[in-house]
Amino acid sequence: MTTSRDQILARIRTALGPPADHQPPYEHAITRTYRTTHATRTPRERTALLADNLTDYRAHVHHTTPDGLPALIARLLADHGSRTLITPTDLPPHWLSAIPPSDVEIRTDDPHLTHHDLDTTDSVVTGCALAIAETGTIVLDTGPGQGHRRITLIPDHHICVIHAPHQIHDSLPQALLHLDPTHPHTLISGPSATSDIELDRVEGVHGPRTLDAVIVTE
Amino acid sequence: MSGGTFMGMPAFPQAAKAALADTRLRANLTHATHTIRTKRATAVAELDDWNDLREAGKQIKDHTLAHLDTYLLQLEAAVTTAGGTVHWATDADDANRIITDLVHATGHTEVVKVKSMATQEIGLNHALEQAGITAVETDLAELIVQLDDDLPSHILVPAIHKNRAQIRDIFTHHMHHWGRPAPDNLTDTPADLAEAARLHLREKFLRAKVAISGANFMIAETGTIVVLESEGNGRMCLTLPDTLITLAGIEKILPTWQDLEVFLQTLPRSSTAERMNPYTTTWTGTTPHDGPQNFHLVLLDNGRTNTLADPTGRQALRCIRCSACLNVCPVYERTGGHTYGSPYPGPIGAILTPQLHGTTTPLHASLPYASTLCGACYDVCPVAINIPDILIHLRERITQGGSAQQQGRKVTVKPAKGHAAERAAMRTAQWALTHPTALGTAQRLATTTRRLHPRRLPGPGKAWTTTRDLPTLPPTAFRAWWKTRSLPTSAPAQNGRTTP
Fold this sequence. Notes:
The complex is a heterodimer. By secondary structure, chain A is α/β, with parallel strands linked by helices.
């Protein structure tokens, strides 16, 4: 019996006819005259552009130093009124060292937590794989300091820490080179939004409605 | 509640006439398309290499289509190695059966859906409903359409034909049939409407065991699937359930991960006019302890191989479903999407639907004429599909017939009915233009009787002059004037020579 797979492949081959004899390898088949970056920037300029573009899409951007990070995280949680926090298991412990234990219950990423448990969690703190200045994008790849995908999805408030300058790349073409496609990725450009009502963008649907992007400059 | 159906829709001119009389529809569409048009132009202008990106996107898609069998087999192997299962569907019925069986095998009767054009195209929700499975649309605009038992009218924003007040009424009157009711005293501010959708869908996301999605891109070398979205409903569906079923047209494939650098720049800017959409998810097969542990990819033909066989028409398969062509189209702006009688409205629908499904129905045969050929669609297309060229090509196919491929077999398409007058006029013109004496006589006759000409054509030509006047003929035909013209004696003559 001919399978659907065989039929489709046969239809494609009939449609295309016999293949051409000399075909360049794929690396040479495409004219890639587009830019790999749209400007030459200093690390400081790159960081500033990322901050501008994140802000443009309604993320809240905060700048700090490694020493100031714990206090900033504690303040952002307090400002948001968070009583519960989830973190990846491998988050550097000192990031959370300024959070008053009596104010915030800290949970760690755990397969046994149900989706409903996460739904009653106010905030999540993670790191990221990298960030892209030109598009104002933060990339998570479930690598170090990021946890499983659902912990950055269900809580309504995401504090995401980006280390400058080394985690910030100029452009999408440059950033993709540093990502391993076998990992699941989430590219985040501002908080959840929709353009579905009269094609006008409004923030806040299903994903975290508050995105605090913390840029730590060494 | 399966949503409406495009079955039995009238041909485009009849549907358009009704749509044009709906002043609220026209106001909603004018507002929305003009808003996005300006924003898109701004977003595109930020990139000084836009034309290079557009050219690269075109070349990547053309190359992939020219080697589609090879890349599909590579994709299948990569997805399988990464823990997914690949299914192939020749047509809509095949795909609906495969997906229904996959859902039945899970033992669940409710699925959550990420917005997907392919599932609209095959009428999946209706097929699932027949099998006792409830499919919940989670994209805000798809939810609006589903709650209202309506039809989508735009590729990106299926509820573009509804304004905020109408959406408020739909939520208030229908949400409770499907789950959590709309909040009391719901206002029509977009933020409140988005909040109502968040509350309504939250419980469904958290308990969902099966999700169905489409795909924006599939990477052949790695087996990676890519979905772009804004709201986070996509992330919910792609991350939380145990089983994920993805339906994708066979043309959604890209050879390499690197190719995303082109399309992740061009798609968001063309689509929602953003530098980058809020969320993009990529996944490769299954990942232990993260996301769905059962992943099925259903590859859909449903007329795509017919389209691939047409050297002019196949460029429609480059389409990345951004909807920029809808937003700039003067016809779409006035008639809306329902008139095109398919989930693919606007210029892209006018070339895609007749190619996927043939031109045998009056509706499908009318679609290539649903255009002024102004070319705005081609200008904005991020993969440079020459839509006007394909429209003219399809018009020729409809009036003249010709050879085509259907389900892998070469067939001869007969000329469509209803174009006899057009064919007769063209044959006459062809004869007259190759017989100069006869042409001269005819022109003399026409110009001397010009005062007697009617403003409208009688008989079969009547329809053509329903919306336009016949052009007025000049007193003398050009050829006659050329012969009799008197050359000025002192003015500079041709070729730079001067008279003494």
